[in-house]
Amino acid sequence: AQTVTQSQPEMSVQEAETVTLSCTYDTSENNYYLFWYKQPPSRQMILVIRQEAYKQQNATENRFSVNFQKAAKSFSLKISDSQLGDTAMYFCAFSDPSSYNDMRFGAGTRLTVKP
Amino acid sequence: SQTIHQWPATLVQPVGSPLSLECTVEGTSNPNLYWYRQAAGRGLQLLFYSVGIGQISSEVPQNLSASRPQDRQFILSSKKLLLSDSGFYLCAWRGIDYGYTFGSGTRLTVV
């Protein structure tokens, strides 16, 4: 079974600085998708970024980028120029498209951006 | 564009009372739908998922049930709530890119 591990329960960063959140996963599949979701205090789950396993190029979305290391099964999220609005819980997720019950979430990392 | 609606946003219910949370999706047909529960400061626990009308799969045996009476409607129910049913409930659907889109959630407090 696929598992997703986020080893950093809490992190903090100063406003305008860069922070990296770690995520590792375990799977025997070759075709899969990886995601980072953000959950601010409102608790709405928001998709931050998506990576397809067969694409070697790392995904980027404005200030958010990932470092996808398929062989190491690592999928870290880098937030550049951190803003106060980035304060949230961040969940790493793994999706196996061959299964209906496909999404596996990590336990989350609580990120606080300090002014 | 696809949207997902979930209501109510907040609910306070006494122990032993019934529960009905509703989720509807617009802009897509035959979506895969999911109910998750999240305890405060914790991760997401999958409760039920559905791949079509009347098709429900349960992930965790509990006091809750789910139904899908229409293609884009997913309902979470309970006949008698327990204190342990308190939490934040999220509905989601899976898009063609295999990512999930979530509703805004329901904060349930059982008193």
Q: How does this structure look, described?
A:
The complex is a heterodimer of chains A (115) and B (111). Chain A is mostly beta strands and 115 residues long. Chain A has a single domain (3-108), classed as Immunoglobulins (Immunoglobulin-like). Helices cover 0% and strands 51% of the residues of chain A. Chain A is built from no helices and twelve strands. Chain A has strands at residues 3-5, 10-14, 19-21, 24-26, 33-39, 46-52, 60-61, 64-69, 74-79, 88-95, 103-105, 109-114. In chain A, the strands form three sheets. In chain A, strands 2, 5, 6, 10, 11 and 12 form a six-stranded mixed beta sheet that branches. The model of chain B has no long low-confidence stretch (mean pLDDT 92). In chain B, a hairpin with a 5-residue loop joins strand 4 and strand 5 (44-52). Chain B has no helices and eleven strands. Chain B has strands spanning 3-7, 10-13, 19-26, 32-38, 44-52, 55-58, 65-70, 73-78, 87-94, 100-102, 106-110. Chain B has 111 residues and is mostly beta strands. Chain B has one domain (3-110): Immunoglobulins (Immunoglobulin-like, Sandwich), CATH 2.60.40.10. Chain A binds chain B through residues 33, 35, 42-45, 47, 50, 89, 91, 93, 95, 97, 100-103, 105-108, 110, and chain B through 32, 34, 38, 41-44, 46, 49, 51, 57, 59, 88, 90, 92, 94, 97-102, 104-105, 107.
User: What is the top-level CATH class of chain B?
Assistant: Mainly Beta
Structurally, the number of domains of chain B stands at: 1
- CATH topology (fold) name of chain A: Immunoglobulin-like
General shape of chain B: globular
Highest CATH level, the class of chain A: Mainly Beta
Order of helices and strands of chain A: EEEEEEEEEEEE
Residue share in β-strands of chain A: over 45%
The low-pLDDT segments of chain B are none
Distance between the termini of chain A: 41 Å
What is the radius of gyration of chain A computed over CA atoms, rounded to a whole number of angstroms?
14 Å
User: What oligomeric state is this?
Assistant: heterodimer
Largest interface: A-B, 22 and 25 residues
User: What's the CATH H-level superfamily name of chain A?
Assistant: Immunoglobulins
